[in-house]
Design goal:
12 helices; Rossmann fold; about 300 residues; eight-stranded mixed beta sheet; alpha/beta
Length: about 300
């Protein structure tokens, strides 16, 4: 409970009792009165309401836990921190999508001085959303004595793969990575479609295979870190990296429970209206928790503006 207390107080929200990690007060306010906000659903494969206790029991009964997020949503990070604080395992390793190998030393040296940790991780200089919204996750992990692990390759490795593909990786870099297992055709098609959509249809089709290679590289790296973790592994990553059909849970050798944190959408009041299953009816996650939306600029308009600047 100490980890939970620190994580929640860090953002000024009310503490919550065990097995009730959904906060009483949300940080984000957009659609906070939506009927799905705060509700938990299990997917097995039918979508059914679940209690905090159901989710906590599942999280404590598995070798690995993958908690997906939308990166700029503050409530998602509070929920992740609360979940970490409630794990009963003696040994926990938290793997972070956001931290590259070269900064593993900063994670190893982490103390409860969160300001110092944010600086050591070069958080905002590397382009991530503000350190204060990610701080609760790291704080919860450090206070409970968890091991912190980088879950990303350094930028130069990713850049090379984006240019020439996975063949550019050295044998040392390939070690421990499952890059040979082919994705099922439906999963591969959905990945390509997601990459096109997430880039607002502005990327030429010829660029998508290289982008898919980068996504596979990142998933394989995180899966390797999860497999190598001491004790229970917890992965903190974007929702796209925790999908059961093609991402880290597809690659890891560990039994994994997947929790997706999802923002509600105006007019969608049933969980069946959200992407929690594949087109073939296979579940993408074991649980989903719905939250308010973060206020953000239109990402497609921002991309259009950025591309216009490049052409000037």
């Amino acid at each position: 409970m100490k980890a939970l207390l620190i994580a929640t107080l860090a953002l000024g929200i009310a503490t919550v009792p065990a097995n009730a990690f959904v906060p009483e007060r949300w940080q984000e306010t957009l659609l906070a009165d939506h009927p799905l906000v705060g509700r938990i659903f299990a997917i097995d494969p039918d979508i059914t309401p679940a209690s905090p206790g159901d989710l906590a029991d599942a999280a404590n009964g598995t070798a690995a836990l993958a908690i997906g997020e939308i990166h700029d949503n503050r409530d998602h990070h509070v929920l992740q921190a609360n979940l970490i604080g409630q794990l009963k395992a003696d040994k926990v390793t938290v793997v972070f999508e956001m931290v590259p190998d070269r900064l593993q030393g900063a994670l190893d040296a982490a103390t409860t001085d969160m300001d110092a940790l944010g600086e050591a991780l070069e958080w905002e200089a590397r382009g991530w959303y503000g350190w204060p919204i990610y701080r609760p996750i790291f704080e919860a992990a450090v206070v409970r004595g968890a091991t912190l692990k980088a879950g990303a390759f350094d930028r130069d490795v990713v850049r090379r793969v984006s240019k020439v593909g996975l063949v550019n990786l050295s044998s040392a870099q390939r070690e421990g990575l499952d890059l040979e297992t082919p994705l099922p055709s439906a999963a591969k098609d959905s990945l390509m479609a997601e990459l096109a959509t997430s880039h607002c249809g502005m990327m030429p089709e010829i660029a998508l295979p290289a982008m898919a290679d980068v996504q596979r590289l990142r998933d394989a790296k995180m899966a390797s870190a999860v497999d190598a973790a001491s004790g229970k592994a917890v992965l903190i990553a974007g929702n796209g990296h925790v999908r059961r059909d093609r991402a880290v849970p597809f690659l890891t050798k560990r039994e994994t429970i997947v929790i997706m944190l999802m923002e509600v959408v105006d007019g969608r009041t049933s969980p069946e209206q959200y992407e929690v299953k594949t087109a073939q009816g296979e579940k993408l996650a074991d649980f989903v928790i719905f939250t308010p939306r973060a206020k953000r600029d239109d990402p497609c308009q921002m991309m259009r503006d950025a591309m216009k600047k490049k052409t000037k």
